Amino acid sequence: xxxxxxxQAEFEEIRKLYEGVMAQACHGLFFREGMILGDEISKIAMQxxxxxxxxxxxxxxxxxxxxxxxxxxSSAVVEGSFEVVGSSDEATCHRLRGMIRKMYEGQLRxxxxxxxxECASRGDGRCVFKIEKEGED
Length: 137
Hints:
It is a single chain. The protein has three helices and four strands; from the N terminus they run H-H-E-E-H-E-E. It is elongated, with a radius of gyration of 18 Å. It starts with 7 loop residues before the first helix and ends with a strand. By secondary structure, the protein is α+β, with helices and mostly antiparallel strands. It is 47% helix and 17% strand. It has one domain: Muramoyl-pentapeptide Carboxypeptidase, domain 2. Strand 3 and strand 4 (127-133) form a beta hairpin.
């Protein structure tokens, strides 16, 4: 077996590279996982379309994902997200973002873009997800 030598500076740069790649991969994985979970919630809520967002909110609370969520026309406001972790420089609620996206798509029957514009992990008081229909400004 052969071994190679890294300087401490090289090792730190390689470590940063791997941490960055893994963080991005995990964010994408969690988002896609959330889309699967959100699709299931959407299917249940579609059984009573007139109460769609009320049912979605109740299911999210019952499953422990949020303490409270308010669905608005172009945003979802969350109190007590399960995904909030201490303090971070970045938004952390990737699964929830995927869930919310699929719930809006299920109700609107259109693809949407969902972005977390406020996150409690960044020190904001709550998590807010901005919803935009794709193809609209």
